[in-house]
Fold this sequence. Notes:
The protein is α+β, with helices and mostly antiparallel strands. The protein has eleven helices and 18 strands. The strands form five sheets. Strands 16-15-14-17-18 form a five-stranded antiparallel sheet, sandwiched between helices. A four-stranded parallel sheet has the order 2-1-6-7. Strands 8-13-9-12 form a four-stranded antiparallel sheet.
Amino acid sequence: MPRAGYVDVLGLFQAEEIGFVIVIVTSKRDGHVEAVSKHLTAHRAPWVRINIEDFATNLEIDVTPSAGSGLLRLKDSGKEINLHDVGAVWYRKPDPVALQHFELERAALEYVESEFTEIILGLYALLGHAYWINNPFHTRTAHRKLLQLRTAVEVGFNVPATLVTNRPEAALGFADRIGGDLAIKSLGAISVMQHQGDGALQYGIFTRRVSQAELAEFSDKIGYMPTLFQQFIPKDSELRVTCIGDQVFACRIQTRDGDITSDDYRFDTPSLQHTAVECPELTSRLHAYMEAFGLKFGCFDFIISKSGQTIFLECNCNGQWYWVQERTGQPIGEAIANELLRHARKVGEDTHASV
């Protein structure tokens, strides 16, 4: 039976021969994996991709928790992963386990879903010896936008004046103190799904600029749920900074005055100019922010104000970067592969030396 320790595609080495295996945790729809895995393959590094949505139908496990050991088998390829052989994990964008094939009542289905969630989190915990980009337990904390803003201030970034509230009078008072337009942002979701028959439409939730008059008009809706309000700062451009370990890749995205990209570049990303830039003045603060959350990877969004000030917006700790690589030529995928390979090799050497 072929082992997951073989190099995918080339099939040359076993994990016990080279000392480690790299695991990529993601979903079938993730288009970023190839940009990294091709470099792992070029280095003849053993790696395997696990699409979490297929867990129920394609993954078999035997785990002995007391020994911290276990074996995972991918049924479609026959590959096996010994947990002790895992030197690094790239935690990308896994989808929930697909359970549509179970013909169960809702309550039973919810129970099955919770059990799968628990075993997945348990497996992650058993891989504490491996090098993670990023550890999902760290990621969960680092995604919290309120904590992001506080941490950004603590490491020395400039941040917009911000209020999160579900009180209309507080929001209106904040707008009066700002004395200008506000930006309304989502605290969590970046998109919503509207189901239509057998299909669904996905809508992005981007930053929206609102005037004080607009805010007053819909202020009675603020009480429905807490909302994040920030001072709207007119910008010259946006800065997308991707950090991998100690490496920093910065891209300036030139937005346009007078159209929707001045609110959020994501409304029309393909049409905007992308330029690779250096940002040495941010490097120490970027590393301090990453260290505060225990991150090895992060995609930071900043705006460059009309006066030239760099202002922190957020950090997505498993954000998208491939489009930046395509537009600028920055070797982001290769940097991720090298980071995984370097640390996986060290973990493998340390693990086998202690046996």
